[in-house]
Amino acid sequence: MNAHAEVAIVGGGLEGLAIAWSLAERGVTDVLVLERETLCSGMTAKSSGVVRCHYGVPSLAAMARYGIEVFSRAEEMFGTDVGYRRTGYVVGVGDANADALRANVVMQRQLGIDVELINHDMVAEMWPGMALEDFAAFAYEPDGGYGDAYMTGMAFAKRARELGVRIRQKNEVRALRQASDGSVVGATLTNGDVVSAEYPGDCAEDGEDDGDFCGGGAVGFP
Q: What digits encode the pLDDT tens for the residues 22-47?
């Protein structure tokens, strides 16, 4: 069955479903997600689920902070639990990386992230018996913890569907369709169906063969 959408997303993992939900929340509901197997069955299902904001790149740290806000309000936003458990998160480094850790904490606090430097005694109180002699500095995030990537992805899918997003499982993309000027205008599926779209996006997860869709001119989502 041929189809048309304003936005076509290749990949029904956590990234693709999060983008579909985010677009729909912003009023872009003519979205079609194409998943070659079942939702969240690829690398999403293998995620360790660590939740943290400790990144040295400001944009990543800011996105992580927003992610924690979403996790914290998941039941309100999606009507379901996504497995987020707030346990706290500690980063420890040796002498060579102590200055970089302190600089990261300054940057993260400027972004509004709840993080602080803590000492050896405080870490020892959290984890009695842990050998700390090789560490020079520690940073602590009280909102860090763990979540469930599969549950989170399915929550995105549920809410995206409620907002009008279409999701097709067992629909593997064989190739991108290009116009005469080289722009990507859709995709051909392995079953022969054709999907046309103004904005095709590649969200095939790391570790999966995405057919070099971005190289073909699709929008690549990190």
A: 999 999 999 999 999 999 999 999 99
CB-side neighbour CA atoms (13 Å) of 123: 21
CATH 3.40.50.10490 fits 3-48+150-220, yes or no: no
What is the model's pTM? 0.85
Cβ-defined contacts of 159-163 (< 8 Å, 24+): 159/21, 159/24, 159/77, 159/78, 159/79, 160/17, 160/20, 160/21, 160/24, 160/31, 160/33, 163/21, 163/24, 163/25, 163/29
Sequence ranges of the domains in the chain:
3-48+150-220, 50-147
Query: Residue 166 — pLDDT band, cuts 50, 70, 90?
Result: very high
**Domain 50-147, CATH number (from 3.30.230.10, 3.30.9.10, 2.60.120.10, 3.40.50.1820):** 3.30.9.10
